[in-house]
Amino acid sequence: MKSNKPLEKLNIFDFSSVQMRTFHVTWLTFFMCFFGWFGLAPLMPTIREDLGLSKAQVGNTLIAAVSATIIARLIIGRLCDTWGPRKTYTALLVLCAVPVYLVGLSHSYETFLLFRLAIGVIGASFVITQYHTSIMFAPGIKGTANAVAGGWGNLGGGITNMLMPLIFAGIVGLGYTKGEAWRLAMIVPGTLLLLCAFLYYKFTQDTPAGNYADIRRKVAQKEKPNTWEVVKDWRVWALAISYSICFGMEITFDNVAALHFVDNFGVDQKMAGLLAGMFGFMNIFARALGGIWADKIGKKNGLTGKGRLLAILIAIEGIGLVFFASAATLPVAIASMVLFALFLKMANGATYALTPFINAKNVGMVAGIVGAGGNIGGMLMGFLFKSENLTYADAFRYIGMAAVAAAILIAITRFSVKEKVKKTAMVEDLV
């Protein structure tokens, strides 16, 4: 029997209900977005040589790849609250396919930098995925649903690092030069974005009860979104700091991992891509694990318990990063990478197990601010990796110490000050 209410269970083998169909399409779309967003990252050793980029210039492109997403996530969060996730995601995918296709026309540092900046907007896709799963599932399962969708989507970062060097090698095998091959390889993610735009528009809807354009939005009639209410809430900024450390490090590592393994351990581009892909591949379970634990703890200890879990996860992430920075051999580097990656990705899931409950009337805006925090973190980390005075190992070490400090801040934040989790989901008010 089909229901127009948020689901109480996450049945991943259900493809018929609109809630689960939307769940599957949204995580798959977010997965494909990584091919556009980070498709260039594992090819950077070749691109660096082809365009003659310095370390500082490479660092600037890393910053550009994540900085545009900051503003985009704020705008997209607001559009989800007003225009609806279905139309917002479709428009975003079509818009961002353009620079993904055109980046191959770059033959200078300046044009490559501008295209990476434009491509970075696709990172706002995460906000829509988290907003959409928050709407489709009941409070007791939101953290799990958000974490699984986000984790499987983030898995695209790992698969991108693994597959793009293979696509590149296949094109070289057809007789093209390396300079031509990396450009032609980007046709693949551009096409994937357009395909996902069609799937999203065709097979999802805004809420379990229907699309925004087809139903009366009683929530909007009762009380309009209050921007100031969100901005002045410290809990929102605490979660933004949390996400800056965990997701900010994730997207930074997706960008620099291949270069780090090539320059510090002497592996080739293909092997570096596989090692970087191992980091991203852990999203298949690690982020979901964070959300599942948070939901279980939340049933007994509320938002306060979820906050304490988040603080612990981020602290261990920081310790693991310090170990990774000190690794002198490749096996030690891989082992410590797996350690910090596990807790980093669990922290991602735990962050968005808290986010939907901070302000039920402004879920999109809160998700946008917290998501933007992740990219602000990634941008600031990019300046460390850009510095001529710091090695990549130095940058990892400083980020690890910052994570421990952030964990202390999160631990003392009272997340359950204003609102308690209600059994009635916000979308039920739309029916």
TrEMBL record:
Where does the chain cross the membrane? 21-38, 58-76, 88-107, 113-131, 152-176, 182-201, 234-251, 271-289, 309-328, 366-385, 397-417
Among the GO biological process terms of this entry, one is:
nitrate assimilation
Q: Does the keyword Membrane apply?
A: yes
* Transport listed as a keyword: yes
Membrane association type: Multi-pass membrane protein
Similarity-based family = Belongs to the major facilitator superfamily. Nitrate/nitrite porter (TC 2.A.1.8) family.
- Cite the GO molecular-function annotations of the record: nitrate transmembrane transporter activity; nitrite transmembrane transporter activity
In which organism is this protein found?
Emticicia agri
* Entry keyword set: Cell membrane, Membrane, Nitrate assimilation, Transmembrane, Transmembrane helix, Transport
Entry protein name: Nitrate/nitrite transporter
Q: Where in the cell is it found?
A: Cell membrane; Membrane
The residues covered by the Major facilitator superfamily (MFS) profile domain are 22-418
Q: Which GO terms describe its cellular component?
A: plasma membrane
Origin superkingdom: Bacteria
